[in-house]
Amino acid sequence: MTQNAPLSPRPPRHLRDVHRRVLTTAQLRARGVTPAELSEQCRTGGPWQELLPHVILLHPDRPTGEERLHAALLYAARAAEPAVPAQPTADGPHRPLYTEVVLTGLAALALHGFSCAPAPDSLEHVDVLVPRQHRLRSAGYVRVLRTPDLPAPRTVSGLPVAPVPRALADAVARLTEAEAVRRLLTEAVRGGHCEPAAVVRELTLAKLLHRPHVVDAVDALVAEGRSIAEDRLYRMVREYGLPDPVWNVDLRLPGGPHLGGLDAYWPDQAVALELDTRAPRQDDDALWSEYARKREHLERLGITVVHLTPRKLRDFPEQQAAVVRTALMASGDRDPAAYVLVLPR
C-alpha cells in the first residue's frame, strides 16, 4: 500500500486513536480519498459520517465527548489553514496542530475537572475561541467566538484549553440561571482552580458585572474567597510557629479617628497584617487609594503593615511566614509606636 492509498472503513475497535477517527476532508484527500469515495462512505447508513462541515468521523456510531472536542477544534482551525499533518503510521499516528484555536466555556471547564460542568458528550454547544480576523461561522454544535486577545492556552488531555478565569467568563456570558453561575464560581474557588480576583477581572473585561445574577454570584464568590484566605492565614500562623496575634480587629486613636480594620495584629510588636481580597471592579482605583491611605497613616504612627494576597498564601506560605517573622523581629529596632486602641471587629 502506498502512503496516499485511500482509507478503508474500519469498525471503531480498530481506530484506537482519536486522531485517526476524526479527520478533515483536506486530510482525507491528502491520504488518497477522492470526493466520490468520501460521498460513498458518508452516505446515509454508511460507515463514516460528516460530524461538522468538512470534518469526518470515521465510524457510524454516536461520537464520544473526546471526538466532539477534536472535531470542533479541527473545524475552527480550518480558518487558520493549518498544514495537513504527515501520513500516520502504526507506530506514530499524526497529531493535528490546532493553530489559533482554544476551547473555552463549559467544555473547557469540564476538561479542567469541574464537576458541575456537563460532560463534553452531553454539551449542546462547544465554544471555541479564534482570532477576531477569522471569519469562520458557527456550525452544528460548534460556537465560534472571535476575540481580539486569544488567551495563551493550557494543554489538557492534549487539547488547547482556555485558563479557568477566561473559560468561566465565556461560560457565564451564556448562562441566565443564577444558581448555575453561583455553582461554577464557587467550585472555581473551593476547588483551588483560581483566586476570586482573577475571576472577577475576567468578568469585568467581559462586561458581565451589570447583570444582577452575576453580581450576586460574585459577591458570594468574594466572601468565599475571603473565608478560604483567612483559613490559610490561621494555618500559616499555627504551622510556622508564629506568635498568636489578635484576630479581626479595628484600630482607633484614643479619642481620635478610626484607623481601619485588620485581619491580624501583634500589639507588642506593633505589626499589622491585612489580606488583600479586593475584587477588581470598576471602582478599584478608589479602593486601592483608600487602602494606601490607611497603610500610610498606620506607618506614620509607627505600625508596620504586612500586606498578603490569597495567592501568595496559597502558593508560598513558608515565604509569607518568613515575611511576618522578619517584621516581628525588626520591631525592637524601631521607635515605639503610638498608643492605639485595639477593638474587636
What features would you describe in this structure?
With 345 residues, the protein is an alpha+beta fold. It has a domain at 242-344: 3-Layer(aba) Sandwich (Endonuclease, Chain A). It has 12 helices and 13 strands. The longest helix is centred in the middle third of the chain and has 28 residues, at 212-239.
**Which CATH architecture of one domain?**
3-Layer(aba) Sandwich
Low-confidence stretches: 1-6, 8-15, 82-94
Count, helices: 12
CATH topology-level fold name of one domain: Endonuclease, Chain A
Helix content: 25-40%
Please specify the SSE layout and strand pairing.
Blueprint: H1 18-21, E1 22-24, H2 25-30, H3 35-41, E2 49-52, E3 55-57, H4 65-77, E4 102-104, H5 105-111, E5 126-131, E6 142-147, E7 154-156, E8 159-161, H6 164-172, H7 178-190, H8 196-205, H9 212-239, E9 246-252, E10 258-266, E11 271-275, H10 284-300, E12 304-308, H11 310-315, H12 317-329, E13 341-344
Parallel strand pairs: 5-6, 11-12
Antiparallel strand pairs: 1-3, 2-3, 4-5, 7-8, 9-10, 9-13, 10-11
Helix pairs in contact: 5-6, 6-7, 6-8, 7-9
Protein name: DUF559 domain-containing protein
Write out key terms for the chains shown:
five-stranded mixed sheet, Endonuclease, Chain A, single chain, 345 residues, alpha+beta, 12 helices, 39% helix
Describe the structure concisely:
The chain has 345 residues and is α+β, with helices and mostly antiparallel strands.
